[in-house]
Amino acid sequence: MCALHGAPAGIFELQKTGSLNHPHSATRPRFVVEDGATTDSDDASVTGHEEDDLHDEEDVDDSVKEDMKKLEDTFPGISERFRLVNRIGEGTFSTVYKAEDLLYDHYKNDWDTFQDHQYETWTSPPSKKRRIEGEGQLLPIKRRLSKFVALKKIYVTSSPFRIQNELELLHDLRGCRSVCPLITAFRYQDQVVAVLPFFPHTDFRIQYRTFMVADMRHYFRSLFTALHSVHKHNILHRDIKPTNFLYNPDIREGVLVDFGLAEREGSEYTGTCLCANPGFVRRSRFLQSYYTTHVSTSTMSAGYPKNDSRPSRRANRAGTRGFRAPEVLFKCTSQTTKIDMWSAGVILLTLLGRRFPFFNSADDVDAMIEMASIFGTRRMKTAAAMHGQVFETNIPTIGEKGYSWEKLVKWASCVEELTESEKQATRLLAGLMELDPYKRLSAKEALQHEFFTDPIEHDVEWGGHPEDSADSVEEEGGKDEEADEVAMI
Ligand SMILES: Nc1ncnc2c1ncn2[C@@H]1O[C@H](COP(=O)(O)OP(=O)(O)O)[C@@H](O)[C@H]1O
Ligand SMILES: [Mg+2]
After folding, report:
1. 121, 211, 245, 249: which is deepest, by most CB within 10 A?
2. Per the domain annotation, does 456 fall within a domain?
C-alpha cells in the first residue's frame, strides 16, 4: 500500500515507502481532536456519537460487516492502521466507512484551525468526574478517546483521471473553511482509499422537516462560505446537494464533501457558448439564426427534425437530477461556478417548500418541463436563447408567465401566507434560482444578502399560523399579484 500525499502535480507518483510502516516519517496533515472530550448531543439523528468514542460498537448489519472485512482482506495493511466501525455512505462512485484511526498518536495532527475549533465545540464534554480512592476529591477522568476518520473507497471502475482529479482538487482546497480536508490517501493495486476527518452530521431527510428559517440561515451561511472558498479557487463543485454538504446543527456548521465531479472553470472547454457574448451579439446571432428566419415563422408541427445533419452539441452535464442548473440542461459550453449557486437554491427551495426531493425528473427534458412549469415559457425561451438553444413546448398546463417564488413556496409548504423571515429567505431564493447565470448571485453576493446581513427573526413553529406572529403584514391580493409579475420579469 502506498500513501498519496496530495501533491498537486503527479499525485499518483506514489511514495515507494508505504507510510503504513513508517508512520512517524509521514508528513501528512492531521486533524486535532481534543483529548478527553465527548459530544453532548442527544439528537439521535446526528451520526457519530460519543458512544463510539467510548468504544461501544455500533449496531452493524452482517452484510456491512462482511463488506468491511472484504476491504480489510483485500487492502493489505489497512487494518493495522484503521479499525473499521461502520459503513456510512454508499454512492455511485464510492463507499464510505467510519473508522477509528489507530495510529492517530503517531502523527502531528496539526491541520487547519477551523477543524480544531469545530471539534472543540462539538466535543465540549459533560464533565465526567470520579472519586479517586484515598484522595477524597473529585478528579476528571483522563480517557484516551478514539479518533475517527471517514475512509472513502473509490470504486475501481472510476477512471484514474477522475480519482486523481478529486484528490488534487481536495489538496488545492486544503485550509478552506467548511470544506472537508483530505488527510491522506492510499492505493493498493487498483484500489484507492481517501482518508478524511469524520464529521458527525444530521440526515437531511430529518432536517428538512424541522428547519426553521433561523436554522436555514446557519446552514446556508456555512454552505456559502464553503462555496465562496471553492469558487475563489475557480473550482466548480458540480454536485451540490444535501448528501454532499454534511451539516451539524449542534455547531451550526457543515462541511462540503465529494469533489468527485468537481472541475476547474474552463477545463471542459469545447468552444465558447453564446451566453459569454455581449447582449447585442447574442441578439444579432439569434435574429440571423435558421430558427428565426425559417422555423419560427412557419407553422411547423412539434417534434424533432428527421434528418438533422448538425453535429450534436456536447457539454458537461455532470451533476445530480433535480439539482442541475438550467444552463447545464441547455448544454452551455461556458459553465461557471454559478451552477453550484443554482443547486444551493434548490436546497433552499426544498427547505422552504418542505418537499424533498423538490424536483423529481427522470431526465433532462423532464427537468426542463419542471422548470418551465415554474418559470413559464417566456422566460424559458429567453434562457434557452442565451445559450443558442430553442425552447418549445406544447404542454397546455405550462403557462407563458409562470409563478412567483412566494406563490410557489406557499403552495409547496401548504400555507396561506409566509412569515416575514420566510419572505426574506424567498428573496434570497429568487437570487439563487435565477435562470440567467450572469444575474444569479455568487457565493460572496449571497453572503452579503439581507438574509444574512439584516436578518428578520420572525419564525413561527412549523404548522403554526403566521398571523399569530407579531409583525406579520397582511398583503392585499391585488398588490400580491402585481408583485408576482414583477418578480417574474
Ligand atoms: N468526512 C465524512 N464524515 C462523515 N461522513 C461522510 C464523510 N464523507 C462522506 N461521508 C458520508 O458518505 C456519503 C458519501 O460520500 P461522498 O464523498 O459524497 O461519496 P460519493 O461520491 O459516493 O457520493 C456522504 O453523503 C456522507 O453521508
Ligand atoms: Mg456524494
Report:
1. 245
2. yes
